[in-house]
Amino acid sequence: MCPDITAPTTTQELASAAQEPLTFDDERKRHTSNEELAEQVSTILRVDRERAEFIVAESERLYVNRMRERFSKLKVSERLKRTNPFLLRIRGAETVLDWATLQVQSALYASEEEAVGHLLESIIKTCFPGATEPALPDDFDFESIESSDVIHGYQVKMSWDCMPMSSRKNLSNTIVRVKEQYRSQGKSFVGYFAPCYGRAKTTKPPGQEYITLASKEFWRQVGDGEPDYDVRVGEVCALLCSEFRSEVLDTLVPNLLERLTHAAQPEIGDREGQIDYAKLFRRVNK
Fold first, then answer.
1. Is the distance from CB of 96 to CB of 267 less than 8 angstroms?
2. H/E/C letters for each residue in 70-102?
3. Per residue in 86-132, pLDDT tens?
């Protein structure tokens, strides 16, 4: 008799389907409308309603829609090939459903990190005073026209660690070219690298063409001089993404769990739905 390995269909069932360390948190369903969210965003960030509505729409597009697209492309063969069987055993995965739960978790967390990065960029470009699309879009996320003949360009990253040495050199080389182009128009250009978190000081070492902004200083600029604006943005990210995360858990996650569990069962499982680690090792290295 074949075991019943049908994946859970609700967040509550998901929470009890696997061992405690392997489950998603039990989260509420979304209950706040986009209009209500926009009202709260407008209050927190102190922006007009139109910009707040744009931020809410962007968060839904970047969070839910991108995850839906990514989850729909998660092929079982690819997930199996990327499975670390040593780590899986250390984490105590015993059933095929355990394996599927861990795969969905990793996909969700990776998607969230990417989505939040894009959401922060959208919020920054919406809130930064005078931000415009770069006229010379070489490695810059936006420009700020300081005066008729002075332009500032900003490259935004989540953290300083997102900027490897090769990229730093490329950014300096790009700024040299952009400066020349603006100089031919009778304008001066200043390039900035802006990490969203983790940078304590504003610096410009010798040989570096751009200014690296302290994270707190950058957010102060985004908030038009308001201190702790990064805290406000963090509140907005939590507000929006917690709403959309519950929607993802109640719609995308159960479907993905079901597909992964049933497809992987004959590949790595035994008759009782347990992981056959000998089969798993052979399948991963196939």
1. no
2. HHHCCCHHHHHHCCCHHHHHHCCCCEHHHHHHH
3. 999 999 999 999 999 998 888 888 888 888 888 999 999 999 999 99
